[in-house]
């Protein structure tokens, strides 16, 4: 069973609000870089960057992180060594905003933090997520949240984005 | 979408005109084709309509007069390698063709992008059930409809949708109709009958929305998702009468803002969800009691509602759509300097009221049922534009060319009471008369609204018209009564009738008392911005906005209502006259009230007046413009005579239908042009029997040119005689000299003005316009000057054939009214080939079920 | 129907026919190009003391509906139309426009060349006008001598607080002459609303413990309001999510140092393309504005421009950089007009939810 909980309009609105909140909390966008976690986090980061550019007329670097190799709950992938630094730019001295689609247990974010650390010492790292669905297993919280969606543990959250899925929306999927 | 720049696009035309389809598609192609060319993109155009204006005069880079079939288009695509296909300019039939092209991988293999739509749009258009599901998924209400195989299943449907319902038999073995069921008894009866005649023992039970208000919205969307509303329009007649057969008002007259915004939102939502680029027409049914609505139809291809929306608002819809089609966004569209820069993005607003009134073929086809229902029967429509509902309605009725006694009230009708009620409940063509009669007999407005399901608002307006006319009648030569009557759309002729005097006397009286017509511009911002559309309508108010054009001016009286009988050819003639008058350094001015007319295309005339053609209407325009010459075409012979009598310089072009029954005549004719002093021959034509094409053909086939050596020699010998006979005719013009065979030798029979069909045939065969020649000889230029660059047709190595299409099937006409005479035609098709046989095969291709 | 005149400050006189009340009345005349929603426009308090000329030629064609009021009582000074349909055909069978205006003592005048009038007003800007029985020198003298009040907000805003209960977020609406559409949209989102007079102090607002504050639409020139209103905004905006509309938007801009200028030509209609800067999307919304924020006076370290009118570049929306306080010049609630901007109310609700934090 699946149920759309966020439609395309609401999803766009959430991204818009996150963008404004990033400006609010960083007192502007100086030194801000966005780092998206693959796959949908990258598209979200790009959309936020586009919005920032519209408002501030400045280009914000967007990096991509693939954290499959870093996760402590996944077997290690030999092809991608966790020590490789993946970004095309240095995060040293930057205000890094890590972007993901869904915040759940927090393990992805922990892995992403590991992957970031190879690139120098950022001034700060904050976290933006489109959905916070609860059920944290680590002491991690998001600074920017598109939508809080309370879920049961066995439910799944599916974020669709036009770039990969052909449309925008968020659904709760209950496999039972 | 692939962002690679387009270099060449293909446009498929609509083919021959038909019931419900006059020039609107060709008008769209002329505008869109030329706008796309201006963007530096080449346009390839395919059509088989000899009266297509778009197929001449450089509206496209290359024109193919070829059959509209998958095979023929595949070949053109393979040869031309266009990189985009515009799917929306040829009506529903061309959507079917494009489905064929997609299924045969023609677009894919030749790397042709489908512009405007996703590929699945084609399936949605062709299959209403798919569209209905898609709309449901978007949360849009659609009419419930279900197949049932038993009374119990039908009862189940009723428990959901309630009465009334419509019951139809699935796959009926006999001609079965839709049954409207109001209660259980009706339903039981309809189901019993329906199951009996159904091959599958099934019926469809459909929720009935007969009597709801029918609302039509036209939106426009670009590839970036920006979308706006072009027009909201309202049918005078309720659901149950085909919207083409219904009087339509723009803007909406009786719906609230909440209802209006609900439709606007739904229209734009549908367009965004389906990612439609360009205009889209969405039809809704509104339950006047509950405010609940249903989406009846989504039409993303060019249609009559879009033509009306463009004409009513003055928004340059076609030019803007052209840019959108090739990937330009609404914010980037560049318009000519007469429009304000952001015009494409301003939602049009009106400060006038537009009324579209259908015209029917019943004056010619008398035996057809005049009942108005869900089957479309009108051949065309006209506009009435004014500053009040009354004025728009009266001007529209006048523009249908009906005698005004059919329009104006206080003319007692001979119906019995029962008959009148029947006619109110079951409307027929020309229903306005019945409504006025009922009001005259004292029927109450609420009662009439209940009987007819027409909003009470309109009955108030009709009562007002009756009241004004009565006041006029009761007060001869009263300034106030006349002023008021004119203010609400009456004319000198109407007042003359009421006062039992002449229009001339009324006109003098009006001018003495400073009752002047004023003209206002039809522009899309209600006066908020300066927009120059050069299109005007008359009213009687304080401010006149129409300043006379300067320079050499020619006024052309347009073809008006599209009636049955190759009238569409007349619109072609008018369009060509405008085009070549402009080339000859005239400022052409058009008077025309037909929204679907190609002649209304903005680049043709320097100025347009959307006005009826009653003498006083024309005199009002003449008083402002004072043109040096007036052109009338064959419809308006009497009008032209009247203007001549009043001292105007009028050139009458009365080339019309072939005079005689030509079905069996397969004798040759010589096609000529004369300047009054000399005669030149285009070539020989022939009319052959329709059964040369295929069996079951009612009409005949025209063939041109005949390259038969013997015949040509024989005609060579007759040249002096032909010349003499044509010159004895006197006036410059184009003529058909019919020959007859007497004792095995060719003799001259009759000389008649060349028919429009023949003019188009020769123009298309030669690739050069005969209208241009006609215009110049009519303007008094010598033949050698007019003809100096005309192609030599004796060198033509192709044969062109042309046949009329008829509405007999559509209108369900049987028996002795089927004659195949040109006067019954609604359209014409052309084809060519190296031999007659090849040409006839091409004519038949794709037209296997066309009513020839 | 009696002949009456519409006379203008510039000396022009238009002959027409009276409807509604036979009173003589004077106000500033503006033209509105909306295609629908005459009742909503007539009852919108932004038009307090003004005479409205409709460019849509037929007005009144479905009478008066009880769900189309934008205020309890209309306070316009006159209605100018080409053609009035003095009928009530709608299912609710309330009053005709003519009856309604008679009840409300508002004169109407029909048979006016409203297209010419609109073009005239477009060129010269709004001016004083009267609906009178005789267009003589005396009438023009009277018109010239009439001084229009600048206390419009005080005349139309609620003098006392009143509730509009709901079960959701707690919202305070500060009333400058609000449109019912604002309350309608907040109700749809279940908000528990308290409407306070425009004179409400910071303390009075804070004491209601709102999740968000709305500054409403209203009539007149923002500079005519007391400075205490600006102080209140300055105190609230950094503590509670704030959403300001119309006159509220102008006040929000002023509270943050921007200046307000007279707009000419004014915007009264629903067909201008408006660009949302952040998404670059174009929307359409109802507008009724005689003033605009002067873009040259915006402190860009404080305010971000969020919406722009694409016709004349006027600012249509602002947002404070450092906290969730934002405003729009247009009417996102429509009524009448497009629904494209309705989701700004959702944005406001989501800002309030976000400020409260997650509910688990």
UniProtKB/TrEMBL annotation, chain A:
KW Oxidoreductase (keyword) present: no
Span of the signal peptide: none
GO molecular function: uracil phosphoribosyltransferase activity
EC number(s) given by UniProt: 2.4.2.9
Taxonomy, superkingdom: Bacteria
EC main group: transferase
Reactions performed catalytically: UMP + diphosphate = 5-phospho-alpha-D-ribose 1-diphosphate + uracil
Motif (PRPP-binding): 96-108
Phosphoribosyltransferase domain mapped to chain residues: 2-146
Keyword set, alphabetical order: Glycosyltransferase, RNA-binding, Transcription, Transcription regulation, Transcription termination, Transferase
Listed Pfam families: Pribosyltran
Function according to Swiss-Prot or TrEMBL: Also displays a weak uracil phosphoribosyltransferase activity which is not physiologically significant. Regulates transcriptional attenuation of the pyrimidine nucleotide (pyr) operon by binding in a uridine-dependent manner to specific sites on pyr mRNA. This disrupts an antiterminator hairpin in the RNA and favors formation of a downstream transcription terminator, leading to a reduced expression of downstream genes.
UniProt subunit comment: Homodimer and homohexamer; in equilibrium.
Protein family membership: Belongs to the purine/pyrimidine phosphoribosyltransferase family. PyrR subfamily.
Listed name of the protein: Bifunctional protein PyrR
Organism listed in the record: Lactiplantibacillus daowaiensis
Source species taxonomy: Bacteria, Bacillati, Bacillota, Bacilli, Lactobacillales
Gene that specifies this protein: pyrR
From TrEMBL, chain B:
Sequence intervals crossing the membrane: none
InterPro entries the UniProt entry points to: ATP-grasp, ATP_grasp_subdomain_1, CarbamoylP_synth_lsu_oligo_sf, CPAse_ATP-bd, CPSase_dom, CPSase_lsu_oligo, CPSase_preATP-grasp, PreATP-grasp_dom_sf
Keywords: ATP-binding, Ligase, Manganese, Nucleotide-binding, Repeat
Record PROSITE patterns: ATP_GRASP
Cofactor annotation: Mg(2+); Mn(2+)
Reactions mediated catalytically: hydrogencarbonate + NH4(+) + 2 ATP = carbamoyl phosphate + 2 ADP + phosphate + 2 H(+)
Record Gene3D superfamilies: 3.40.50.20, ATP-grasp fold, A domain, ATP-grasp fold, B domain, Carbamoyl-phosphate synthetase, large subunit oligomerisation domain
Top-level enzyme category: ligase
Span of domain ATP-grasp: 132-326
Name of a matching Pfam family: CPSase_L_D3
EC number in record: 6.3.4.16
Family from the record: Belongs to the CarB family.
Full protein name: carbamoyl-phosphate synthase (ammonia)
Species this chain originates from: Lactiplantibacillus daowaiensis
UniProtKB/TrEMBL annotation, chain C:
SUPFAM superfamilies: Carbamoyl phosphate synthetase, small subunit N-terminal domain, Class I glutamine amidotransferase-like
Reactions accelerated catalytically: hydrogencarbonate + L-glutamine + 2 ATP + H2O = carbamoyl phosphate + L-glutamate + 2 ADP + phosphate + 2 H(+); L-glutamine + H2O = L-glutamate + NH4(+)
Record-annotated active site: 333
Top-rank lineage group of the source organism: Bacteria
InterPro entries associated with the record: Anth_synth/Amidotransfase, CarbamoylP_synth_ssu, CarbamoylP_synth_ssu_N, CarbP_synth_ssu_N_sf, Class_I_gatase-like, CPSase_GATase1, GATASE
The keyword Oxidoreductase appears for this protein: no
Signal peptide interval: none
Region feature CPSase, mapped onto this chain: 1-169
First-level EC class: ligase
This enzyme's EC code(s): 6.3.5.5
Binding site for L-glutamine: 218, 220, 247, 290-291
UniProt domain Carbamoyl-phosphate synthase small subunit N-terminal: residue ranges: 2-132
Pathway as given in its UniProt record: Amino-acid biosynthesis; L-arginine biosynthesis; carbamoyl phosphate from bicarbonate: step 1/1; Pyrimidine metabolism; UMP biosynthesis via de novo pathway; (S)-dihydroorotate from bicarbonate: step 1/3
Keywords attached to this entry: Amino-acid biosynthesis, Arginine biosynthesis, ATP-binding, Glutamine amidotransferase, Ligase, Nucleotide-binding, Pyrimidine biosynthesis
Gene3D superfamilies on file: 3.40.50.880, Carbamoyl-phosphate synthase small subunit, N-terminal domain
Stored SMART domains: CPSase_sm_chain (SM01097)
Matching NCBIfam families: CPSaseIIsmall (TIGR01368), PRK12838.1 (NF009475)
Entries under PANTHER family matching the protein: CARBAMOYL-PHOSPHATE SYNTHASE SMALL CHAIN (PTHR43418:SF7), MULTIFUNCTIONAL TRYPTOPHAN BIOSYNTHESIS PROTEIN-RELATED (PTHR43418)
Family of this protein: Belongs to the CarA family.
Function recorded in the entry: Small subunit of the glutamine-dependent carbamoyl phosphate synthetase (CPSase). CPSase catalyzes the formation of carbamoyl phosphate from the ammonia moiety of glutamine, carbonate, and phosphate donated by ATP, constituting the first step of 2 biosynthetic pathways, one leading to arginine and/or urea and the other to pyrimidine nucleotides. The small subunit (glutamine amidotransferase) binds and cleaves glutamine to supply the large subunit with the substrate ammonia.
Name of the protein this chain belongs to: Carbamoyl phosphate synthase small chain
Gene source species: Lactiplantibacillus daowaiensis
